[in-house]
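This section describes the prediction task in plain terms. A model, or a person checking by hand, is given the sequence of a single protein chain and must write out its three-dimensional structure as a string of tokens. No templates, partner chains or ligands are provided. The sample shown here is typical of the held-out split.
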Amino acid sequence: MKTAQAVPRTLDLAALLRKKSIMLLGPRGTGKSFLIRQTLGDSALRVDLLRSDVYLRLSASPGEIEGMIDAAGRDIVVLDEVQKVPALLDEVHRLIEEKGVRFLLTGSSARKLKRRDVNLLAGRAWPASLFPFTWKELGGRFDLDRYLRYGGLPPVYLSTDPAEELRAYVGTYLKEEIQAESLVRRLPAFHRFLKVAALDNGRMLNYAQVASDAGVPAATVRAHYTILVDTLSGLLLEPWRESKKRKAIQTPKFYFFDPGVAHTLAQTETLDRNSDLYGRSFEQWIGMELRARLSYVRSDLPLTYWRSVHDQEVDFLVADRAAVEVKAAKRATDRDAAGLAALAEERVFKRFYLVSQDPTLRRRQVGEATVEFIPYETFLRRLWSGELDGIP
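The expected answer:
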């Protein structure tokens, strides 16, 4: 297996920590611990709440963190997996206020942090997120077919046996962790739900259908999707609701955070280039690149999608600035831009992009939309260099 050390990450922790304490969230396996070690080395005190002795000590007496910090004499304190002991956030709050301690808090679940009685530090720590490898980070190592099939988790993408790594990841993190956190009462039913949810990855939520397929009540399905979002395993992509010309669908879509994880849960063996699943995986990947870009440049612009009741659809919208339709086709046509043309009639969005595997860059008028037909590599190069109009 190659080392992740040679893959530079976009998130600049050092720059953020010079300004403020940080709450760094991200799914397990995205490389939070490695990035912290790479960035801070031995200059920070690291308190790992995954260690049972540390967890037991601080869960019994959160105030002991102050003595540990004083004894270490470090300028920065890393609290790994802080959601394990939410009561520590009261101490963090106090130590930031009274002693000016700079904290880097990490977590792979926001579920316990969302409880009403949990101190969220009232702006004393900036939020940040870490995602799987992006196209920019991988650079010359990027292989489209490999990424769409196995995803971008560092230990998976860099492995000589990515399928085996994914099976271990799903077994260890998406199942055992949820069981350990006592988030579900009936684990076999949750496992069935995970497979059905993975098969529906990238589609509009249909709780009744998923409930029927998984053999669980619809109310339970809703709760299970909430668990996936809270444990950072998935994203609810909300619909754009400001449509005036055409009545819009009000139902969100759900995407797993990584295509490889979705394929493993769905028990996908191969990804056929001409299949609908390939197209949905390509769409998911572009959406996750957009999400990562907005997060890493610290933009609060919402990422949504649009679909009319007559099935006209645009995959991703960045606020009210840019509309992005994604097609896996090697030759994109005006017909592929029909959703963009329909959306243009709203007279809201300024830029319209059709991202595909067509190598020809061109601009065409399709209905009322001036559509930029753009190869995915050109789109991503411009995205990550900040050269796409309408997208920061």
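For orientation: The mean pLDDT is 92.
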